[in-house]
Amino acid sequence: MTHLSVPRDYASTLVQATADSTLLGAYTPLPGASPVAAIRRYFCKYAVFFGRASRSEYWWIVLLSTVVYGVGGALAGATQITTAGVSHFGGVITEVSIGAGLIGTFLLVYFLATILPTISLSVRRLHDVGLSGWFVLLGLVPILGSITLFVLFLLSSNPAGQRFDKC
């Protein structure tokens, strides 16, 4: 006769297993997500436009992108040495250093690699608030659209958002 052994800390094991399964399988938000968990879910749900994303999941990614673009922009500005001259036709000639060009290229690649998961994350965040993902198109409206989306992303979870979870 064999006995099943139950870990002493069964609750923490269950919580860890649940947290691991929420990375790919579940479509519910992960409140209080750590930066690592938020980044992992961001890339694991690269193009998942259903389900929901918590405020912490969303804002950790916003912080990451802000740091990447801020540091990249600062480095590009610091390495950009322009030399100006006058062409034979009266125009001004400027040259940009290679460092600024490489950093700009990196930022372009980062943008292209993250545009789809960022839109996906924004749609899932709107679902968590209880709104349709189509509200993400408000970002196309100059100034007011961005302000409106900013306010919507700050709202807390709404139980009505459960309708966007996939069964």
From TrEMBL:
Positions of transmembrane segments: 58-77, 89-113, 133-155
Keyword Membrane attached: yes
Any Pfam family the entry gives: DUF805
GO CC, one annotated term: plasma membrane
InterPro entries, per the entry: DUF805
UniProt superkingdom: Bacteria
Keywords assigned: Membrane, Transmembrane, Transmembrane helix
PANTHER family: INNER MEMBRANE PROTEIN YHAH-RELATED, INNER MEMBRANE PROTEIN-RELATED-RELATED
Protein name: DUF805 domain-containing protein
Organism: Brevibacterium aurantiacum
